[in-house]
Amino acid sequence: MPVRIEHHRIEHQGVEGLRVGRVLTQLTSSCILYRLGTTIIDTGPPNQWRTVRRFLMERDVARVVVTHHHEDHSGNLARAHHDLGSPVYSPPASVAPITAGFALKPYQRLIWGKPRRVEPQPIPDDLDLGSGQSLRAIPAPGHSDDMTCYLEPDRGFLFTGDLYIASKTRYLRADEDLQQQIASLRRVLELDFKTVFCSHRGVLESGRAALHKKLDFLVGLCERVHHLRDEGRNVREITRMLVGKEGLMALLTGFHFSKHNLISACYASVSPEDGVSPEDGIPPKDGVAPEAGVAPGRRTGP
Fold this sequence. Notes:
This protein is of the alpha+beta class. Helix content is 30%, strand content 24%. It is built from ten helices and 16 strands. It has helices at 49-57, 71-74, 77-84, 95-100, 106-111, 178-188, 207-230, 235-242, 248-252, 259-268, and strands at residues 3-12, 15-24, 27-28, 31-36, 39-41, 63-65, 88-90, 121-122, 126-130, 133-139, 148-152, 157-161, 172-173, 195-198, 202-204, 257-258. Strands 1, 2, 3, 4, 5, 6, 7 and 8 form an eight-stranded mixed β-sheet that branches. The longest helix is centred in the C-terminal third of the chain and has 24 residues, at 207-230.
């Protein structure tokens, strides 16, 4: 399988970034870590430590924070703490998996590597960065239970981790919660921000418009799936109709990432006209329960 390494630098209004990672044929798996003053946000995958270390050693690092525990974000947290001696922070829900370690699938080990263990401090709601700057932690679950965005309120900078990634979602991890993602997008859009710093897409100067576009796409996709569901179509048929056949992503990840997961999550979600909340479950249509095995996976652990 052809593999190449991707490294390049980013700079925007005083924020520096470094994109690191491997690219395997059609699958881009790089991640961006950002430097805001003396604060590092996310650390990249563990198999990219040499490049990440050079970036960190260029300036003083007062603290390192991560948006969630996934290996492409917390992957070098332990090494940064060990080599730099800087305090490390994570969302409270990330502390346990980062401290104890978490299971990885074969493709995750291949593409990103296995993180070392470290015990981070739970990040406070408002982290003082000095010189009048702060980072406000904004819980944004869905991609993972511990997914957290960070808002720098004075300049309207929002570091979104994996909340955004792309405006049009075509794949979903089996352990993602689509309805939580939609709720998180709505909640984040209530904040006062301008620029989005995405861990995969990069800098989005029209950040609010980008998040709105993703929210509208996901809501619209669920509505289209509900319409086809109510016509009697099953998940496989709807997947083919709306997003096409599975591709390399599904095959490489053993269907951990797949189009089927995305449509299943939409199919199992509750539309407003059903008159119940998503927590109440899926109401039967014409007295028949929804197709077995189509409910979206929810994260029950790391």
